[in-house]
UniProtKB/TrEMBL annotation:
Organism annotation: Pseudovibrio exalbescens
Transcription listed as a keyword: yes
Residues in the signal sequence: none
Protein name: LysR family transcriptional regulator
Domain HTH lysR-type: 1-60
Stored InterPro entries: LysR_HTH_N, LysR_subst-bd, WH-like_DNA-bd_sf, WH_DNA-bd_sf
Keywords associated with the record: DNA-binding, Transcription, Transcription regulation
Family the UniProt entry places it in: Belongs to the LysR transcriptional regulatory family.
One Gene Ontology term of the molecular function aspect: transcription cis-regulatory region binding
Length: 301
């Protein structure tokens, strides 16, 4: 290779601080050595990686493209180095807030995988709706959040983990269960039980119906999905819930996914963290393993 890990380390440190001198201090280099390493990298790649903005340096388009790839190479190199010395690369505790769908269906497998790879990593998980998770991340109660839907808060960074979709479901005994197609008018006439306001599921559902259906007959709103599933199974209600939360009930024949062609609801499950948070290798490991897990999962999302 024509570039070195040292050059990539200088590039990443400058990207973090916006300053060659601060990057040099972080890496225990002289400023001239850091400047030379960065200059050599840009010359080798044939592209400018930074541009000056005021007193600081900001990434160019090429710099933004390179940074995640450089971070991955540096991480892998460190893992190899410490692995040969039988040291644990990742240890310590991290606090995670997770919304219900991710916490119930994805997080347990994620923790199991991480336990095998990083036995000294401790993940403390609390389960809340998306609004409370994002609030907890902002207020420093969680280092990392797992939420449903979009996050438009500029104080938080968002990285999509995977995609899920919502389905409108009814009991097999519900009159609509026999219909090949359910109309919007029939949805307006139905009795609904839904997640509470503030949940990611409810926010996405409301957004999908905005301008499509003016008025729903919402009888009950609950935070816990098992309560909603019981109401659907034992009463004359319909609901809109994440596919992962109802797939077993649909496959068993207890629930029916209603066919409403006008309403198709997809949503991302994402990681969020504070924009100004310091780099956290525990967070990076969790996100990397989570994406690897989904890539090799047999779950149809």
């Amino acid at each position: 290779m024509r570039y070195s890990l040292k050059q990539l380390a200088v590039f990443d440190a400058v990207a973090s601080s916006g300053s060659v001198s601060q990057a040099a201090d972080k890496l225990a280099l002289t400023q001239s050595a850091a400047s030379m390493a960065l200059s050599q990298l840009e010359k080798t790649l044939g592209r400018p990686l930074f541009e000056r903005q005021g007193r600081g340096l900001v990434l160019t388009h090429w710099g933004h493209w390179l940074r995640p790839r450089a971070k991955q190479l540096l991480f892998d190199a460190k893992e190899i180095e410490l692995g040969f010395y039988d040291q644990h690369l990742i240890s310590g505790e991290i606090s995670v807030g997770a919304s219900q769908t991710g916490a119930e269906h994805l997080v347990p497998d994620l923790i199991s995988n991480l336990d095998r790879e990083f036995p000294e990593l401790r993940i403390n998980v609390e389960v809340h709706n998306t609004e409370k998770v994002t609030q907890g991340v902002r207020e420093f109660r969680y280092d990392l959040g797992i939420i449903e839907g979009r996050c438009d808060d500029s104080r938080l960074q968002q990285d999509i983990w995977c995609h899920d979709h919502l389905v409108i479901v009814a009991s097999k005994h519900h009159p609509y269960a026999a219909y090949e197609r359910v109309s919007l008018t029939q949805l307006e006439q139905a009795k609904w039980v839904l997640r509470e306001p503030g949940s990611g599921t409810r926010a996405i559902f409301d957004a999908a119906l905005f301008g499509v259906i003016d008025d729903l007959d919402v009888w009950r709103e609950y935070e816990h999905v098992p309560v909603l599933r019981s109401l659907i199974a034992n009463g004359p209600y319909i609901s809109c819930l994440p596919y992962l939360d109802v797939i077993k009930f649909i496959e068993s024949g207890e629930f029916v996914a209603l066919n409403v062609p006008e309403i198709q609801i997809e949503r991302p499950l994402s990681f969020v963290w504070r924009t100004n948070a310091e780099e956290n290798p525990l967070k990076e490991v969790i996100i990397r393993e989570a994406k690897r897990m989904i890539k090799h999962s047999r779950i149809k999302m």
